[in-house]
Amino acid sequence: MKRLAGFTVIELMITIALAAIILTLGVPAYQGLVERNRLTADINSFISSLALARSEAVKRKQRVTLCASNNGSTCSNNNSGYESGWIVYVETTAPADNRASAEELLWVSEALAENMTLRATVPFNNRIQYLPTGQTGGLGNGSIFLCKDNAVNKARLITIIRSGRVHLAKNNTYGVPLTSAGAEITDCNTS
Fold it and tell me: Which end of the chain is least crowded, N or C, by CB within 10 Å?
C-alpha cells in the first residue's frame, strides 16, 4: 500500500501554536523598534533643518530663521510648538515676527504625527534665528523636546547653544533623555 505524504493534524496544530507564541513575543518588540525609529527620524529632520538654516546664514551672510508654521508659508506665533510643521527662510527685511512674502523660503516641513509634540524653551519657543556668523539670534541657550504621547521615556532632547551648535542628548537605559548636567528630564512641557 502506498503511504500519502503530508502533515498530520497534530503536527499542524503544534506548528500553529509555535507561530502564535513567536508572534506574541515578537510584535511588541517590533512596535518598540518602529516607535524609536520614528522618534529618531523626526528629531533628525529637525536637526537637519537647523543645520540648513545655520549653513545658509553663513553662506549668504544674512539672517536665516526656522520658525513653527502650520501652513507652510508663514510663522505661527502662538507658542503652539513645532509639531504642526516648520519653515526655514532667509530674512531680507528687518527682523519681524513673521515671514514677508518676498523672503525666500528654503525649507518646509510637514506636521508630525498627531501624538507627537516638539516644544522649545525660551528663547526658541517660536523661532530660531541664525545670524551671518552662525550664532543664534536668541538671548542664550535653549532646549527642544520631542515627545510621543507626552511620555519622557519616549522622548528626545536637543540643546542649542548661543554659538549655534546643536547637541542631541543621550538617553538612559529606560529611554529618558539626560540633560547636560546628567539629570533625567522630568516632563515634556517646556514652561
Answer: N
Say which DSSP state 136 is in. B
- pLDDT tens, per residue, the chain with 191 residues: 667 777 788 988 999 999 988 888 878 878 888 888 999 999 999 999 999 999 999 999 999 999 999 999 999 877 778 999 999 999 988 766 788 888 999 999 999 998 999 999 888 888 999 999 999 987 788 999 999 998 888 999 999 999 999 999 988 888 888 887 888 888 887 64
**What homologous superfamily does CATH list for 34-168?**
minor pseudopilin epsh domain (3.55.40.10)
pTM of the model: 0.83
* Interstrand relation of 105-109 and 86-91 (parallel, antiparallel or unpaired): antiparallel
Cell of 56: 545658509
